[in-house]
Amino acid sequence: MKFAISSKGDPVSNSILQRMKTYLLDFQLEYDEDRPDIVISVGGDGTLLYAFHRYRSRLDKTAFIGVHTGHLGFYADWVPDEIEKLVIAIAKTPYQVVEYPILEVIIRHNDGGREARYLALNECTVKSIEGTLVMDVEIKGQKFETFRGDGLCMSTPSGSTAYNKALGGAILHPSIRAIQLTELASINNRVFRTIGSPLILPEHHTCMLKPVNDVDFQVTIDHLTLLHKDVKSIQYRVANENVRFARFKPFPFWKRVRDSFVGDIGSER
Ligand code: NAP
């Protein structure tokens, strides 16, 4: 089995990377940064997002494992104290693969139909470069509303605990193949109106944003910020690809949510 390790870059994560690499090589596993079967991310969720994008062209052949070093680590199952256990599990145990849906974003431009396709593990946000974002929102080819406000966020189920949560979106179990649209400070008054609630779209529904005035936007895909000019439309749907995680022990999603956001507060009662 071939493996790669991606580190947050701080001294603690780098030293764990070195230890894991040495142990796994001792177990006769092959280190291959270009074509790994498993990718171990050491750091926080930001490190896992980086690793996801580094290997996005081979998602069907790569399974991710997260080790968290002091960060939230929503995607990470392992802590530094468990490194030896994890290495033995990787070397000796056939692992189970858990697949989560991800988001496909297609940005089409006015000039000659140029288009860019992205995959997001957490979400895509769209904001205007200057002033209020004004976008027509279409769902399944039908106009739904004209949005006016700071921006729009489309998240995946596993990304629903990230930016989406801060925007009042629901936390969605990743077995639900859906995407969720939330608003960033919409303008709502007698003249302008938006739905105001998060919308959860199933796998077979496409959401399209169409510029009303400005055609230049700031688009984020997870941790990446991009500038897109002369945009004709931004299309969202559940991607055909999935992200795959290698699981060596059960860590149910709701336990992950509880550990990350509720902790032990209130458990005394
Ligand atoms: P960052 O600003 O350094 O970190 C954002 C925080 O979000 C970190 O604590 C990170 O955990 C956590 N996080 C990432 N994915 C998560 C998930 N699926 N569930 C729960 N928490 C998660 O930015 P970054 O490290 O480059 O990560 C980019 C992400 O930041 C974006 O995808 C977006 O979701 C999030 N973000 C959130 C807000 C907000 O909540 N208001 C605003 C902008 C962006 P770790 O500490 O383990 O890395």
TrEMBL record:
Query: Quick one: which residues bind NAD(+)?
Result: D45, G46, N122, E123, R148, D150, A185
InterPro entries for this protein? ATP-NAD_kinase_N, ATP-NAD_kinase_PpnK-typ_C, NAD/diacylglycerol_kinase_sf, NADK
Question: What EC number(s) has UniProt assigned to this enzyme?
Answer: 2.7.1.23
- The highest taxon in the source lineage is Bacteria
Q: What is its main location?
A: cytoplasm
Q: Which UniProt keywords apply?
A: ATP-binding, Cytoplasm, Kinase, NAD, NADP, Nucleotide-binding, Transferase
Question: Where does the record locate the signal sequence feature?
Answer: none
Q: Where would you find this protein in the cell? A: Cytoplasm
Catalyzes what?
NAD(+) + ATP = ADP + NADP(+) + H(+)
UniProt entry tagged with the keyword Metal-binding: no
Q: Extract the Pfam families matched here.
A: NAD_kinase, NAD_kinase_C
Q: Which family does it belong to?
A: Belongs to the NAD kinase family.
Give a short account of what the protein does: Involved in the regulation of the intracellular balance of NAD and NADP, and is a key enzyme in the biosynthesis of NADP. Catalyzes specifically the phosphorylation on 2'-hydroxyl of the adenosine moiety of NAD to yield NADP.
Name of the featured protein: NAD kinase
Species of the source: Metabacillus rhizolycopersici
Gene that this polypeptide is encoded by: nadK
